[in-house]
Amino acid sequence: MVAGKVKKPGKRGRKPAKIDLKAKLERSRQSARECRARKKLRYQYLEELVSSKERAICALREELEMYKQWCSAMDQGKIPSEIKALLTGDEQKLPQGASGTKTSKKNNISSSA
């Protein structure tokens, strides 16, 4: 007994403060709003990421189709003009789909093989 108060066993630590119920509900609502906002941002980011990956896949499929056409033309004994331009170093003659990074990838593959 300390100064007339009887300690109850098992009740250690701070006593729960008498928090206003309305304030507690408002904090809970605010937390839920913030959680929904974070979730919305996360989903927007993921949707943009999926969209960019889908665009990259489409571009790679087009590039693959172009290379398949080149291979089939070469199997028939024809050399596509794009490959001639690559071999001669004339990149101005290349069509728009076969210039830029695609030609450098082709050059890197042929030089490393």
Structural commentary:
With 113 residues, the chain is mainly α. 66% of the residues lie in helices and 0% in strands. It has helices spanning 21-75, 81-88, 101-112. It is rod-shaped and about 105 Å long. Mean pLDDT is 79; it is low at 100-113.
Keywords for this entry:
CREBL2/REPTOR-BP; 3 helices; activator; mainly alpha; 113 residues
Summarize this structure briefly.
Residues 1-16 have a biased composition (Basic residues). With 113 residues, the protein is mainly α. The chain contains 3 helices and no strands.
Mean pLDDT, to the nearest integer, reads: 79
The helix/strand class is mainly alpha
The low-pLDDT segments are 100-113
Spatial separation of the terminal alpha carbons? 89 Å
**Which range best describes the helical content: under 10%, 10-25%, 25-40%, 40-55%, 55-70% or over 70%?**
55-70%
Q: Give the SSE string.
A: HHH
Radius of gyration: 34 Å
DSSP E strands, number: 0
The major β-sheet equals: none
β-strand percent reads: under 5%
Tally of DSSP helical segments: 3
**Shape from CA axes?**
rod-shaped
Topology:
Blueprint: H1 21-75, H2 81-88, H3 101-112
